[in-house]
Amino acid sequence: MKFTVQQIADILEGIVDGDEQLELSKLSKIEEGEKGSLSFLSNPKYTPYIYNTQASAVIVNKDFLPEQPVDTTLIKVEDSYKAFSKLLEYYQMAKMSKTGIEQPSFIHETAQLGDDVYVGAFAYIGENVKIGNGVKIFPQSHIGDNVTIGDHSVIFSSAQVLSDCVIGNRVVINSGCVIGADGFGFSPNPDGTYSKVPQTGNVIIEDHVDVGALSTIDRATLGSTIIRKGAKLDNQIQIAHNVEIGENTVIAAQTGVAGSTKVGKNCRIGGQVGIVGHITIGDNVGIQAQSGVGRNIKSNSNIQGSPAFDYGDWNRSYVYFKNLPKIEKRITDLEKR
Question: Which among 236, 237, 276, 284 has a CA at the least distance from the CA of 260?
């Protein structure tokens, strides 16, 4: 996609200082700018780069006053950071503007597709699927039987939404995700082997949820695994069967939540956190990275460690943890004396 400097300035309600007809085809960091690219300057520490950047145009604040000659075209706006963010959103929307059915792809005759839907090549859409308006299903994705996908949701390449799952409006499922695989359910036999417990439930993902690449959300044994509206899941997260994640909770990469655990609203869970099954975590809880959570957590708590306990207590205890060798030596010396 190509835009002129003036077209960009019109979108951002900015003023052009330089060549209005220059064509721009990409975005770049100011220190890595090249011909045909557009960058921005908001942090003062990056100001020196504007005097030698190769970017064809740079978005700056209206009050920017260069201290030496600037070769690049400037687009002057009220707030360069907000303007560039707006442009990124516009650029993303333009990239996502695809519609139509690419071939080869498979869409079962019983599937119902809304208006302005995009289905990429090699995608599979099964029986009795219901797809809302403006949905984007990128190449090589799999949508299983009886799945429902709400309006303006996006299923990126190679993602799988397996049978009977329900995806809300404006949900983003990133590449490589598996939604609705069997939960980890096995019962032990007297001879030491295990028998599989059928997983007959589904996954429900409510509106405005983002699921990062290669994350997995298992279907329930009975009932539903539920991701409530506004939740944000990073890459490579495992959500087990019958888990419920509360509204607007954010979870960082490589976290695992074991079966039947309930996580409340507005929680903040760091990377590589391990949470055992069948517990309840309250609302507004903060869990620091690499913590191991093995018990119920009250609302408004902030915890760290493995096993995790109060964040302030953990920090105070850490002073002693790291000094244990010195303390042991002092005790040994005292005993000898």
Answer: 276
pLDDT tens digits, one per residue of 277-318: 999 999 999 999 999 999 999 999 999 988 877 888 878 877
Q: What are residue 143's DSSP bridge partners?
A: 125, 161
| Total number of domains constituting the chain | 2
Peptide bond into 307 cis (omega under 30): yes
Asked if 272 and 201 sit in the same domain, the reply is yes
pLDDT digits (tens, 9 = 90+) for 80-128: 999 999 888 888 777 788 899 999 999 999 999 999 999 999 999 999 9
70, 51 in Cβ contact below 8 A? yes
**Same domain assignment for residues 176 and 74:** no
Angle at which helices 311-322 and 324-336 cross, to 10°: 50
In which band, very low, low, confident or very high, does the pLDDT at 332 lie, cut at 50, 70 and 90?
Answer: confident
Cα dihedral 36, 40, 45, 48 sign: positive
pLDDT at residue 325 tops 90: no
Q: Which residues are catalytic?
A: 241
